[in-house]
Every structure is written in structure tokens, then in C-alpha cells.
């Protein structure tokens, strides 16, 4: 039997390999799909990180949460399916290839003892060697299992350390969120001089808001002695006071870094209010259009109704015909024919030009039809004639404009001017238009 043992083992491996190849799922293809789904899931988080400010202004957190949850669910379902297949195949692999070959070897070796010629064999070698062999096999098996158990404990220590890194990050995030809920804002900065509204030292220090302003719901936008202070303690304007009523279209000008965008971040509650009183409508009555609009993955319809879903659009009473009319207003009616329909999906950031993106954002504004619109250089890539059409349409449907721009052509669409000088000063005045 000595020369037959290896032959039997080789034959067992050969047929086991053929059988495993026949029943094995296409793990290569499944892994490629898993990597693709994981990339899409990471892409959702990347979009959320890169466009967090625009999403916060749009109040698109629910839309983004639904999108991320759907991507995560799809990834988890596929991963669980692959893990189940790997589990079953692991069992087959272990039983047929690893343990199966060992069992075949033991069976071959046991034939002289337990086979038809066992009496002659035992009589030849005696009974003591068999007892020694039995004890040896049993003890060696126990020792091997003990060694494996100790090895698992050693490996588990590293896995616990790896898990501790994630738990530390989660705890830090939770700690910051709890501080935000309590109205405690703390940042680290380096400063050399003195600034109003913050405690300044020569080196790094924490800046914590000791006094917090008050936000009051109103039908107008009014700032009363409100300081424009960044979350890290930089004071851009010590105090500002003005009021914008419905119909009072206002344009905001000033050099870069003077506080124009900071004013709107405070208005939209993206930045904390460190003092004074802020009167404003509910956030649903204000809408923000940045210079580079956020175009989420989805259909052409989604670009107009964002952050609404299709069900919310229908419950609002809007139809696809209304969406098509809004595209006609901003001179983008050709997109429906070019892309096939409103249900067509594409990478809109690559497909649309800069001017088309800005006009899509204006169509989004007309769809939501808020009471106040904050337009931050949102028509810089649009021709002046189409720009005039969009601004006139905004005023026609009753949207009060709050525009940040340096283009002189936009002054005629506004009644008031809020000017920052870049040195902490500001002025609010009524614009006088010459009658033609």
C-alpha cells in the first residue's frame, strides 16, 4: 500500500479541484462589482465633503442621506451575498481539499490496522505500539488546538487595537456634535494682535463664544448690531445693522474677504451668531445659489427639483411640463431633447458647460420659488441678455433678490446697495436709477 497512498491523494486533489471549479461562483466578477459599489459609496461621501456648504444652504441633508443610505444598502447586500458564497466555498474547500486529503491519507494508513488483514498486522507488531500511537495522535491534536487558540488571542489583541482607532474617531465626532448642540463653539487659531469679540493670546489658544446672539423668526431680514465673526474668531465687521423687506432687492459689493459670503453663512445658520439680533424668515423661505452650483448624481429632473424627491415634486403640484417651462425660461429647453427626457441620467458636472450649470441653478430657484433668494455671483458665466431675463423673471414671480456681484449690469435690477470696504466698514443705501 505504500506506493498507492500518494497516488490516491493526487487523484483526490485532481477531482476535488475539478468539482470546486465547477461549483465555484465567479468571485473575480463579484469582486469587481463590489469594488465598483464601494467606489460609488465613497463618491457619495466625497460629494458631501466637497459640497457641504451648498448642501447645507439647500437643506439637502435628507436627499443626501437617502442617497448615501441607498448606496450603503446596495453595497452591504452585495458584500453579504459574496461573504455567504465565500463561506460555503470555504467549507467545501476545507472539507474536500484540506481535510478531505488528510482523511484519505489516514484511511489508507489505517487499512493495515482496521482492514481485512488487521489480525496478521497486529500479531506481527504487538498491541503496545498501537496504544502509543493512539495516545500520540490524541495528545498532538489537543496541543495543536491549544496553540491555535492562543494564536487567535494574540491576533485578537491587534484587532482590538485596530477597532480602538475607529472608536476614538467616533467619540471625537460625537463630542463635537454635543458641543454644537449646546451652542459651544471652540476653535484653535494663531494670532499676534487684538481683535474684537475674542480673547487673543500670543500663541495658540481656544476661542469660545461667551455671548450668543438671538435669532427671531420674522417676515423680513434684519440685522441688529450683529458682528460678522468667523468660527475661528476672525472679526470681519464689528457690528452691522440693516433691514431687507420683501420686494427690497439688494446687491452686496466689496473686496474679497470683506465678509460678503460670511454674512450669508450667518444668515443661513452655517456660522454661529456671536451677538446681536437676527430677524429672518424660516429657512424654507430662503434659497441660496452659489457661483458653482451643486449638481448631484441623478436625472435631469433631479437637477431642477433638488433637494426634493419625485414624490415631493408631485405632492407640491408640479408636473414635468412645469419643469420643461422653467428650462425654457432659462433658455435650456434644448436639454430635454438633447438628453432624451427628464429621466435621463448623466454626469452633469461634465456634460453641462459653466453657463448651463448656472442657468440650471436659476431654474432650480424658480421651481422652489422662495421669498428671498441669495445669489452669490451665480450668473458670472451667463450672457447679459439671458441674465436680464432671469432677473426680471425672479422679480416677476415675487422673489426678493439678495445678490453678491460686482457687475454693473445687475445694479438696475436692485433697489438697495450694501457695500463693504474691506477694513471692517460698511454702508447701506438706496440706489437711484436714472429714468430713461
Describe the overall structure:
With 436 residues, this protein is α/β, with parallel strands linked by helices. It folds into two domains: 4-126; 214-430, 3-Layer(aba) Sandwich (Rossmann fold), CATH 3.40.50. The chain has helices spanning 4-23, 27-50, 52-58, 61-114, 118-125, 128-181, 260-267, 300-305, 310-316, 320-329, 334-339, 348-351, 354-368, 384-396; strands spanning 186-189, 205-208, 214-217, 221-229, 235-244, 250-253, 277-280, 286-289, 298-299, 345-346, 372-376, 400-404, 416-420, 426-430. The chain is elongated and about 125 Å long. Mean pLDDT is 79; it is low at 1-5 and 188-210.
Number of domains: 2
**What string, H for helix and E for strand, traces the elements in order?**
HHHHHHEEEEEEHEEEHHHHEHHEHEEE
Rg over alpha carbons: 35 Å
CATH class of the largest domain: Alpha Beta
Q: Which spans have pLDDT < 50 for at least 5 consecutive residues?
A: 1-5, 188-210
Classified in CATH, the superfamily of the largest domain is P-loop containing nucleotide triphosphate hydrolases
What's the end-to-end separation, in Å?
A: 114 Å
Short structural description:
This protein has helices at residues 4-23, 27-50, 52-58, 61-114, 118-125, 128-181, 260-267, 300-305, 310-316, 320-329, 334-339, 348-351, 354-368, 384-396, and strands at 186-189, 205-208, 214-217, 221-229, 235-244, 250-253, 277-280, 286-289, 298-299, 345-346, 372-376, 400-404, 416-420, 426-430. The protein has 436 residues and is of the alpha/beta class. The chain has a 6-stranded mixed β-sheet, sandwiched between helices. It has a 4-stranded mixed β-sheet with strand order 3-7-4-5, covered by helices on one side. It has a two-stranded antiparallel ribbon with strand order 1-2.
Amino acid at each position: 500500500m505504500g506506493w498507492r497512498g500518494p497516488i490516491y491523494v493526487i487523484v483526490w486533489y485532481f477531482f476535488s479541484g475539478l468539482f470546486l471549479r465547477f461549483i465555484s461562483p465567479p468571485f473575480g466578477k463579484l469582486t469587481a462589482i463590489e469594488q465598483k459599489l464601494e467606489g460609488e459609496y465613497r463618491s457619495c461621501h466625497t460629494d458631501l465633503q466637497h459640497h457641504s456648504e451648498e448642501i447645507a444652504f439647500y437643506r439637502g441633508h435628507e436627499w443626501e442621506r437617502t442617497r448615501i443610505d441607498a448606496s450603503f444598502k446596495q453595497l452591504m447586500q452585495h458584500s453579504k451575498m459574496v461573504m455567504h458564497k465565500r463561506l460555503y466555498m470555504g467549507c467545501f474547500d476545507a472539507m474536500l481539499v484540506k481535510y478531505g486529503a488528510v482523511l484519505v491519507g489516514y484511511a489508507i494508513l489505517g487499512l493495515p490496522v482496521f482492514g481485512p488483514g488487521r489480525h496478521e498486522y497486529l500479531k506481527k507488531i504487538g498491541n503496545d505500539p498501537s496504544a502509543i500511537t493512539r495516545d500520540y495522535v490524541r495528545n498532538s491534536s489537543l496541543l495543536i488546538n491549544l496553540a491555535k487558540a492562543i494564536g487567535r488571542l494574540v491576533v485578537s489583541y491587534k484587532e482590538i487595537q485596530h477597532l480602538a482607532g475607529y472608536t476614538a474617531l467616533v467619540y471625537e465626532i460625537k463630542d463635537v456634535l454635543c458641543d454644537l448642540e449646546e451652542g459651544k463653539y471652540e476653535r484653535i487659531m494663531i494670532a499676534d494682535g487684538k481683535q474684537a469679540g475674542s480673547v487673543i493670546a500670543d500663541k495658540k489658544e481656544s476661542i469660545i463664544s461667551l455671548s450668543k446672539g438671538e435669532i427671531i423668526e420674522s417676515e423680513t431680514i434684519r440685522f441688529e448690531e450683529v458682528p460678522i465673526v468667523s468660527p475661528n474668531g476672525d472679526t470681519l465687521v464689528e457690528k452691522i445693522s440693516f433691514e431687507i423687506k420683501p420686494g427690497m432687492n439688494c446687491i452686496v459689493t466689496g473686496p474679497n474677504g470683506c465678509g460678503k459670503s460670511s454674512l450669508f453663512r450667518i444668515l443661513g445658520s452655517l456660522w454661529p451668531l456671536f451677538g446681536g439680533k437676527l430677524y429672518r424668515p424660516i429657512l424654507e423661505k430662503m434659497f441660496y445659489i452659489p457661483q458653482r452650483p451643486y449638481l448631484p448624481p441623478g436625472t435631469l429632473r433631479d437637477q431642477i427639483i433638488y433637494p426634493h424627491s419625485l414624490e415631493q415634486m408631485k405632492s407640491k403640484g408640479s408636473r414635468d411640463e412645469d419643469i420643461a417651462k422653467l428650462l425654457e425660461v432659462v433658455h435650456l429647453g434644448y436639454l430635454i431633447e438633447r438628453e432624451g427626457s427628464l429621466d435621463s441620467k448623466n454626469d452633469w458636472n461634465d456634460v453641462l458647460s459653466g453657463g448651463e450649470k448656472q442657468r440650471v441653478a436659476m431654474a432650480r430657484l424658480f421651481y422652489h420659488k422662495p421669498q428671498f433668494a441669495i445669489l452669490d455671483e451665480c450668473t458670472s458665466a451667463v450672457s447679459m441678455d439671458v441674465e436680464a431675463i432671469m432677473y426680471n423673471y425672479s422679480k416677476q414671480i415675487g422673489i426678493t433678490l439678495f445678490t453678491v456681484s460686482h457687475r454693473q449690469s445687475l445694479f438696475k435690477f436692485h433697489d438697495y446697495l450694501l457695500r463693504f470696504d474691506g477694513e471692517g466698514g460698511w454702508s447701506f443705501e438706496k440706489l437711484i436709477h436714472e429714468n430713461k
